[in-house]
Amino acid sequence: MRIPCPHCGPRDEAEFSYRGDATVTRPGPEDGIEAFHGYLYERRNPRGWQVEWWQHGAGCRAFLKVLRHTVTHEIRAVATATEALEVPEA
């Protein structure tokens, strides 16, 4: 898999570390322990497009959002951590 880093250009996935689902938001203290338990242990396992966190550890060390298909591993878009990426309709 080749990931097009916005800072370094296209690189092999071996230079990156997968950091998880980028659409999950951490609950606040007011949400309670059950919400935090769900945040930690109850994750979706989607089949299709997903926005994910990746870190370019062997390059610029930046955190990136990657729109990747979980079945085909096709990468449709890459953005910096502050940019928005939307999951396309199936």
Automatic annotation (TrEMBL):
Signal peptide: none annotated. InterPro entries: SoxD, SoxD_sf. Pfam families: SoxD. One of its GO terms (biological process) is tetrahydrofolate metabolic process. One of its GO terms (molecular function) is sarcosine oxidase activity. Gene3D superfamilies: Folate-binding superfamily (3.30.2270.10). This is Sarcosine oxidase subunit delta. It comes from Neoroseomonas eburnea.
